[in-house]
Specification:
Blueprint: E1 2-3, E2 13-14, H1 29-42, H2 46-72
Antiparallel strand pairs: 1-2
Helix pairs in contact: 1-2
Length: 74
Amino acid sequence: MLSGTKEDGTIPRYVVPGLVRTKAIYMSDMVAKLTAEFSKEKNVTQREVMEGALIEYLQKYGFKREVETLLKNE
């Protein structure tokens, strides 16, 4: 489920169904630092930042239908 849109300046937040699993994500230390700063400044968790970014990436690059189906199953 989407709460807010980029057009009005709010950060999209998604309700993703399923169990929470721990995953190791390797990234540049600078990207990790930006993620932490963004998370703190915008009062969102780093998990929300990463899930939102991945959802938008998947939608943009070929998995739009699959993501829409996933988000409808909340």
